[in-house]
Amino acid sequence: MSEVLVDLLLFAGVLELLMCAAGVLVMRSAFDRLHYASASAYGALLVAVAILARESLSLIGDKALATAALLVVCGPALAHATARAGRIRARGAWDAAPGVEEHEAKQRDQR
Amino acid sequence: MNAWLIAALALLPGLLACGLVCVLSDVLDGLVALELAGVLSTVELLLLAEGTQRQPFVDLALVLAVMSFVGSLAFARLLERRL
After folding, report:
1. How many helices (H) does chain A have, and how many strands (E)?
2. Could you list the residue range(s) of the whole structural domain that residue A76 is in?
3. Based on the structure, what is the number of domains in chain B?
4. Which CATH number belongs to the domain containing residue A51 in this structure?
5. Which residue in A59, A74, A86 is closest to B28 by CB distance?
6. Distance (Å, rounded) from C-alpha B47 to C-alpha A6?
7. Which among B15, B20, B39, B59 is the top mutation candidate for probing chain A, defined by the most A β-carbons within 10 Å of its own β-carbon?
8. What's the pTM?
9. Which is the most buried residue in A54, A72, B65, B77, by most CB within 10 A?
10. Domain of residue B49, residue span
11. Measured between alpha carbons, how far is B22 from A42 in angstroms, rounded to an integer?
12. Do B44 and B58 touch, CB atoms closer than 8 A?
């Protein structure tokens, strides 16, 4: 029973990670890709739980769980930082509306 | 060859996909692919550690998780400045 559970968790984790990789490969814009990249931390969590189910709370199980927890906690912060960088690159400022840069450039030209 | 090593092998196409996106797409897409590659590499090390029963590999995975987070964050901050 335990072996089946471990195999099931491992399979689910690897499948989830591969689907995230496929999503990153197939999607067109960086923001679409970001959804798949940030979801990948849960695949790592499934793999870590599989290791924990097999090894119980040993040294390797604890560290695997700590690694996955780190990925799950830091993932959203990283996704936000990346999306913020993309938005600032596209619009010139975090709170700028679309086309603000072009509008300001036109105004400068008119002066 | 056990299930853990097979799983590690199965994840390799995912890393290849990240490499393709890094090479062929825009710099922001490359950053997203780099983030995913960090997670995939971390899981690869976890699976290798479990598959070969070598505990030091788990430390490598933990260190890689921290370093890839810090590195990707630094890249994201640099991209804000339109380099």
Report:
1. 4, 0
2. 2-110
3. 1
4. 1.10.287
5. A86
6. 13
7. B39
8. 0.88
9. B65
10. 3-80
11. 23
12. no
Q: Token pair for residue A74?
A: 């830091």
Contact between A79 and A49 under an 8 Å Cβ cutoff? The reply is no
pLDDT higher than threshold 80 for residue A97: no
Neighbours of A106 (CB within 10 A): 10
- Which has more pLDDT, B7 or B83? B7
Q: How many domains does chain A have?
A: 1
Q: How far is CA A26 from CA A5, B13, B19, B21, B58, in A?
A: 31, 14, 13, 9, 31
The percentage of chain B sitting over the pLDDT mark of 70, rounded to a whole number, equals: 98
pLDDT tier for residue B80 given thresholds of 50, 70 and 90: confident
Give the span between the Cα atoms of A59 and A39, in whole angstroms. 26
CB < 8 Å to A75, chain B: 39
CA distance B14 to A42: 15
The ipTM assigned to this model is 0.91
The mean pLDDT of chain B is 91
